[in-house]
Description:
The protein is α+β, with helices and mostly antiparallel strands. The protein has helices at residues 22-25, 31-34, 63-67, 82-85, 90-102, 136-142, 149-168, 211-214, 224-227, 234-250, 260-265, 283-289, 301-309, 315-320; strands at 14-15, 38-39, 43-51, 55-62, 74-80, 112-118, 123-128, 171-172, 181-184, 187-190, 197-198, 216-217. It has two domains: 10-128, Phosphorylase Kinase, domain 1 (2-Layer Sandwich), CATH 3.30.200.20; 136-309, Transferase(Phosphotransferase) domain 1 (Transferase(Phosphotransferase), domain 1). It is built from 14 helices and twelve strands. The strands form four sheets. A six-stranded antiparallel sheet has the order 2-3-4-5-7-6. The chain has a two-stranded antiparallel sheet with strand order 1-12. The termini are far apart.
Amino acid sequence: MDTPLMDEDADLTHMVGGAPSALADNQSVSPVAALPEVLCKRYKVERLLGVGGMGAVYRARDLLREQYGDPEPYVALKALNEEFAQYPDASALLYSEFALTSRLRHSNVIRLYAFDIDPPSQRAFMTMELLKGPTLDQLLAERPDGLPWAECQSIAIPLLEALECSHNLGVLHGDLKPSNVMLAADGLRLFDYGLGQPTKGLLTSLPRLSRSRIAAWTPRYAALELLNGEALAAPADIYAVACVLYELSSGHHPFSRLTARQAKAMEQDKSLQRPANLPPHCWPALQRALAFDPEQRDIDATGLLDAYRAPEPSLFGRMFGRKRG
Length: 325
């Protein structure tokens, strides 16, 4: 079964200074009805795969590929939902996501094909690879005690490699969470850069959008500075991925699914314990990444990668490997 490429938990989306989700306001709204059956005389929309706070993803058949005998002519097609499609800058919003993501040519980042606008309806959309497999949140729901170290490492390393690539190329994800990580048959994919932004000074030709109007951070993965209205920066992605890494090892959110603001007020960071499945040598790096204060979150994706790639010290090394001062 094709797994949804978008987070279906629209009620978990925190709208910052903008209109609430169409699904939250009116559960009868169907994004399927808002799209023509065939877009650009090429893509036949077959069914809805998933819905998020701002957009929807569909399974579509590429009629051109089918015409030339492609045995797998299917693509995933993403369009903004009906509410957001009515904004004058809706096409620019979707194109910004396309431009940012297509910049990332990495085996663990979703592969995009094309951005287009259907002439009759003037609906913007983009096509991408159709992935099959569970999302990380689905896996975690089946593993309430977390994953053993070898399995955790096999997921954490490609995820961190994808984030490292993104940041090195000047792209911030903005909404990193388990439901935006796909465990496809040919490897992990990080997807949904819908809230992504370029780092300061890069990709300046991209449309400048009113992010305060459409920002939809997922509360329990949003860094404190985002909840306080500050601009998205790399440390916010680090906080989000650290929450995901903690969940991989423990099976639960580091701060009991509370927002960073709530957890800080309750001083939950002071009682945070290393997950039993996480080797001790990784814990200092993960603790730094989970800091509420972005200035104390003084580690990047490469630093986390180094910790997760490092071999676990042997018992002899743990007992006698400390240097004497």
